[in-house]
Amino acid sequence: MSDSGRKGGALWRDAEFLKFWTGEGISQIGAQVTTLALPLTAVLTLDASSSEVGLVNAASYAPFLLVTLLVGVWVDRVRRRPLMIMANAGRALLVTAVPLLAVLDLLRIEYVYVAALLIGALTVVFDVAYQSYLPTLIGKEHLVEGNSKLQGTSSLAQIGGPGLAGLLIGWVTAPYALLINGASYLVSVVTLLAVRRTEPEPVAPERRTGLWRSVGDGVRIIWDSAHLRACALQSGLYNLCWMSLQTVFVLYAARQLDLSPGTIGLLLGTGAVGSLGGSLVAKGLKRALGLGPAILGALLLCCVAPAIIPFAPANGGLVSLALFVAAFALIGAGGTMANIHIISLRQSITPDELLGRMNAGYRFVSWGTLPLGALLGGWLGDVIGLRPTLFVTAAAFLSAVLVVLASPVWRLKDFPAQITARPETAGVPS
């Protein structure tokens, strides 16, 4: 970590971080195309029902519930950059298979389910590995700066990705838009291969433990820390509501408001302008308010804003579109500010040898609710209607704020001391 470009903590001058950042950012743009193109492939090409769209979204996120803890053990055993490269190469192959099957007139809803499931599994590998790799790449003293840049890139991807996806879907149809995603993953592989900073070997365990005990460590690490526990629980509740909202909104906009795929994509994309703004002011917000109040304020913003969506006129007019943009912008701004500080908090207080299992345990709790939210949103949309489901979901978002208010997180002025590993969590599996 002694590179001359690292002096002063200026990551803009850190060539190795910039390569990593570029690769991660390009794959984020591609992932945004898939987020819209896969469900719209089901809706527009295969005439899927609300429940079938819910199953597509559920399959995308089911691996966060099914394999995340195993991936966390794996990530703690090996170097993390090769895992990211492998994951993006695999995602490139899977998404490009969709247009190939469409050309051959073989595309079926069952393949969309399988593709979503496998892409989701590789996304688990990439995400757990990259969040565990970042502290070894830039040092823990630069985490807020590094996470701010990464969240800013994610926000830009959310701005351009859905809009690009919507325009591409309108131009070449949904399956072929996925070719852009496949290309983006391959470019990301090249940039990650170009990183030259040596990644340290995984920390050798004091004693080796069995696989399933190590899997259990991923959840135990979260549960034993009041700060990590509260962050994970609020994230799980928030993501449950967000996936329900996203599943139903795409159907609501396409079928009841008769909006085009391009308009839906641009709505989601322009709403993410707020995310970019949030990434730019997050560091200053922490400095002005302190860590805990900054997290709480950001959560209030992103958990109240969803109520704007069902209250907007159900006619697809200019007023509705303006309110949708405002809602998604506020959700993006609050969510991004909260994520920057929560991710930095997690990385700061967790020893390096536990980062893989901590990130996996966190993703298991927080992202494991995404498939449940997709199924719940799709089911409620069929049972009570799309707009009533948006009202129910908007009210449920507030549960995430209550979890943080009931915890010590919102009272933090700065990052607390690093947690101490239990003896049984110090090793890796045999």
TrEMBL record:
Pfam families per the UniProt record, alphabetical: MFS_1 (PF07690)
Membrane topology summary: Multi-pass membrane protein
Intracellular or extracellular location(s): Cell membrane
Top-rank taxon: Bacteria
Record key words, sorted: Cell membrane, Membrane, Transmembrane, Transmembrane helix
Membrane-spanning intervals of the chain: 58-76, 83-104, 110-130, 176-195, 237-254, 260-282, 294-312, 318-343, 364-384, 390-410
Coiled-coil spans in chain: none
Keyword set includes S-adenosyl-L-methionine: no
Leader sequence residues: none
Record's protein name: MFS transporter
Source organism of the structure: Streptomyces formicae
